[in-house]
Write a structure and sequence with these properties.
The chain is an alpha/beta fold. The chain has one domain: TIM Barrel. The chain is built from 12 helices and 8 strands.
C-alpha cells in the first residue's frame, strides 16, 4: 500500500461532543469536511486539540472508523495513536492502518519519565511490527511540556535506522524552533511540522513540510494563502488570530471560537479535565477574531 506524503496546512481538528460528552460523529464529519474545503491540506485527527487522551480506546476507534465510513479522504488524514499503554497504542495504530489513514502520529508512552531510549525504541518497534503488512507511516509527536518524554534527535536517528522507511516525520509542539530545525536537518525526506502557522512562510521555502496547528481550525483559509501564495498579509492575520489564545486555555478557546464561527454553541463543549473558558476570555477571543476578520474584509 502506498501512502502519499502529508504536507501543507494541517489542522489538529477539534472533536465535537454531544450532550453526554461523547464524540459527536455527525458534527465531527461536518467540521472535517468544512476544514478540508476551506484551506486545510489535511487533518490531524485525535491529537491534543482533539482531546484524544481523554477518550477510551473504543471511543477513539469509533471516531477513526467514522472517517472511513463517511468517505472522508483518508490520504489527507493522520491520526493520533499514542498511549501510555503499549497494548492500547498497538490496538489504535493497527486500527489506523486497517482503515487506511495516511499516517499515525505517536506520542511517547507518557506516564513514566526518564525512561531509557531502549524502551522507547521497543515501544515504536511494537507499532512498526503491528502494522508491517500495511507499512503505515509513523510520525513522532514531540510535546515534552505535556508528555514529559522527548523524542530527541539522536533517538529519532536511531529509530529511522532501526525501522527503515517507517519513521517519516515529526510534529513539534515544543515551540522550540531550534529543535524543529535540528529535526528537519536529519534528512530531506523527514517531514517536520511545527505546531504554529507562524512558520509557514519559512516552511514554504522547503525547511519544513508545513504546520500542524490547533488554530488552523479557525484560520485555515488565511494559512493556505500564506502557504500556497506567500501572502504576507494573510500570514500576519493568521498569526494575529493565533495570538488571541496566548495566556488562555488553548483547546477550550479554539472550541469556543468554533462555536462562534459556525453559530453552534455545542461545538464549544469540552470533556473534563478541560472546562469552558471564562466569559471574559470568550469575549476577548470572539471579539478579537471578529475584529481581525472585519479588517481582512475591508
Amino acid at each position: 500500500m502506498s501512502h502519499p506524503t502529508l504536507s501543507g496546512v494541517i489542522a489538529a481538528i477539534a472533536t465535537p461532543l454531544d450532550d453526554t460528552l461523547a464524540p459527536d460523529i455527525p458534527r465531527a464529519m461536518k467540521l472535517a469536511r468544512w476544514l478540508l474545503d476551506n484551506g486545510c491540506d489535511g487533518l490531524n485527527v485525535l491529537g491534543s486539540t482533539g482531546e484524544a487522551t481523554s477518550f477510551s480506546v473504543e471511543e477513539r476507534k469509533a471516531v477513526m472508523s467514522a472517517y472511513k465510513a463517511n468517505a472522508l479522504p483518508m490520504d489527507r488524514l493522520m491520526v493520533g495513536t499514542g498511549a501510555a499503554s503499549i497494548a492500547d497504542a498497538i490496538a489504535l495504530t493497527r486500527h489506523a492502518a486497517e482503515l487506511g489513514f495516511a499516517g499515525a502520529l505517536v506520542l511517547p508512552p507518557f506516564y513514566y519519565k526518564g525512561v531509557p531510549d531502549d524502551g522507547l525504541v521497543a515501544y515504536i518497534g511494537a507499532l512498526v511490527e503491528a502494522t508491517a503488512s500495511q507499512k503505515l507511516p509513523i510520525y513522532l509527536y514531540h510535546y515534552p511540556q505535556l508528555s514529559g518524554v522527548p523524542w530527541h534527535v539522536e533517538l529519532i536517528k536511531r529509530l529511522r535506522q532501526n525501522f527503515p522507511g517507517r519513521i517519516v516525520g515529526l510534529k513539534d509542539s515544543s515551540g522550540d524552533m531550534t529543535y524543529a530545525r535540528s529535526v528537519a536537518a536529519i534528512a530531506k525526506d523527514f517531514a517536520t511540522f511545527p505546531s504554529t502557522e507562524a512558520c509557514l512562510l519559512e516552511a514554504r521555502k522547503g525547511e519544513f513540510a508545513g504546520c500542524i496547528s490547533a488554530t488552523a481550525n479557525v484560520n485555515a483559509d488565511l494559512c493556505q494563502r500564506a502557504w500556497k501564495d506567500g501572502d504576507a498579509a494573510a500570514h500576519e492575520q493568521a498569526v494575529a488570530i493565533r495570538k488571541l489564545f496566548e495566556g488562555r486555555p488553548l483547546v477550550p478557546g479554539v472550541k469556543t471560537l468554533l462555536g462562534h464561527i459556525h453559530g453552534d454553541a455545542t461545538l464549544a463543549r469540552v470533556r473534563p479535565p478541560f472546562a469552558a473558558v471564562s466569559a471574559a476570555d470568550r469575549t476577548a477571543i470572539t471579539g478579537g477574531y471578529d475584529a481581525i476578520r472585519s479588517k481582512n474584509a475591508a
